[in-house]
histidine kinase
Amino acid sequence: MNQDWRRAVIRRLLLLLAVCLIAGALSGEYGWALAVGLGGYLGWTLSQLLRLHKWLKEHKPDEPPPDGYGLWGEVFDSIYHLQRRDQRVRGRLQAVIDRVQESTAALKDAVVMLDSEGNLDWWNRAAENLLGLKTPQDSGQPVTNLIRHPRFKEYFEQENYRESLDLPSPVNDRLRLQFHITQYGNREHLMLVRDVTRIHQLEQMRKDFVANVSHELRTPLTVIAGYLETLLDNVEDVNPRWTRALQQMNSQAGRMQNLLNDLLLLAKLEATDYPSDNQPIAVDTLLQSIRNDAVALSGSRQHRITLEADASYQLRGSEAELRSAFSNLVFNAVKYTPMAATCASAGGATNWARTWRCRTPASASRANTCRA
């Protein structure tokens, strides 16, 4: 209410008071005159308030306000203008929401919004096709109740979403989906799900090609290596000019066999999607066993191998595969490190021993491999 309306209200009150005083002077009852005047003004005010309440309760969006007089007419008009402005703002916001929903509905990728507890808030049409979500009965349900794969439950609960997760679709095992979750706002979640079936098929074709080629090359290479070994075992019956060539051929054949074995091992590891023997492994016990084997392998070559490992650290994985990875590094270090040499100096002979250390620093959460 502006300053002019304040003056108008004050003038009306003063006018009412003057009329009451004149009526009291004529009748000789000032008290009754003031009471009747103020009561009438109060009754009129209450009637206007009831009209306002009825209009706010029953009016339609485009229905104009009731006619009012004085201050109440200004109140009716102000409320009406505020409502119209609020309707325009809500219309613009609803248009933006509708546009966002239309654009996300047109996406081939699924978009799912989750609250801080992991319950479903909203999803687009692609989520219904890829994940089997149903509207509206799935609204408010925990996402782990609808996507029951154990890897997804572990991925969601650990709250480490830097890497995406590939899983089969819960509605079609032939579809391969990639899940990526982003946290925003008050620990709410935005989950994007993409169909990567084609990429997965191409990757599987590559794996199958490497495995098949490695397997097919293994037989002819074994035959070639066998004949080369036979010729070298009977080298006295071979022309001396071919001896060096046969030795080089045998060496390269052995190298190719090692490469094929590595390729076959790689194909085997890639074919294992989620190892069944995935479990926490005590790093210190595993490395201590490998150290003992390395000492036995060193024999009389005088290598000194020490181990510093924190007993509280564990690695989650396959014990056989972890042992293979660590032992390959340690055993190669032992095999390709020359035996201790004796060096002469002015002070006499000094024995130099090569030292290999395998340690897990206190600041690390996983075991480091051996280093010189």
About this structure: The longest strand covers residues 176-184. Confidence is low (pLDDT under 50) at residues 341-372.
